[in-house]
Amino acid sequence: MNKIYLVGFMGCGKSAVGRQLSYALRLPFYDMDKEIVKQQGMSIPEIFEKYGEEHFRNLETEFLKNFRDEACIISTGGGAAMRQENREIMRRTGLVFFLDAPFEDIYKRIKNDANRPIAQRSTKKELERLYYYRRKFYKRAAHIRVFTRNRNIRQIVNYIVFQVNRLKGE
Ligand SMILES: Nc1ncnc2c1ncn2[C@@H]1O[C@H](COP(=O)(O)OP(=O)(O)OP(=O)(O)O)[C@@H](O)[C@H]1O
Ligand SMILES: O=C(O)C1=C[C@@H](O)[C@@H](O)[C@H](O)C1
Ligand SMILES: [Mg+2]
């Protein structure tokens, strides 16, 4: 149990929180989306366009399966917790936090971002539906849920540090 995984919908703060958490806990930080982009030499919209979403999902599972045994923080892609296999790998190899942000916060953050193909191709209503559909999978994946409403990144990081230290002490 030496990894810390952050899961949740696009824009919930996984990358931003993961980066700050890595300073707070002095652990290396990996952003799954960025690692896949590096490996493939293509952006996420390019991977989706050229090979389709299913292929990207397989790359996510390969990443989780093959990632070295190292204490670190991993911010996952927004869809990574949808597969049971991925959830099992994360729960087995680490502590999983679900960053639970309200849809309105999320929508404000993602609506204009060209780097998120799913946000690009969906209407607000469709994204909202996807948000509610996915929640149960994030909850299933996570050991701990973090409510982010009205909390800034520093407060969220402090809460996760508190939980990690509490569990280490057990
Ligand atoms: N609690 C917060 N308060 C204010 N801004 C936030 C908060 N959480 C995230 N943000 C901002 O929202 C934007 C989206 O966050 P981020 O990129 O970390 O999301 P993500 O969960 O990694 O999304 P994706 O799944 O698409 O990779 C960033 O600009 C980030 O700084
Ligand atoms: O929610 C999703 O399905 C995604 C979220 C991003 O992190 C990327 O992994 C990609 O844009 C897909
Ligand atoms: Mg991210």
UniProtKB/TrEMBL annotation:
SUPFAM superfamilies named among the record's database cross-references: P-loop containing nucleoside triphosphate hydrolases (SSF52540)
One GO location term (cellular component): cytosol
Catalytic activity: shikimate + ATP = 3-phosphoshikimate + ADP + H(+)
Subcellular location: Cytoplasm
Keywords of this entry: Amino-acid biosynthesis, Aromatic amino acid biosynthesis, ATP-binding, Cytoplasm, Kinase, Magnesium, Metal-binding, Nucleotide-binding, Transferase
Pfam families, alphabetized: SKI
Annotated InterPro entries: P-loop_NTPase, Shikimate/glucono_kinase, Shikimate_kinase/TSH1
PANTHER family to which the protein is assigned, alphabetical: SHIKIMATE KINASE (PTHR21087), SHIKIMATE KINASE 1, CHLOROPLASTIC (PTHR21087:SF16)
Subunit composition and interactions: Monomer.
Function: Catalyzes the specific phosphorylation of the 3-hydroxyl group of shikimic acid using ATP as a cosubstrate.
Name recorded for this polypeptide: Shikimate kinase
Source organism of the structure: Ureibacillus terrenus
Taxonomy of the source species: Bacteria, Bacillati, Bacillota, Bacilli, Bacillales
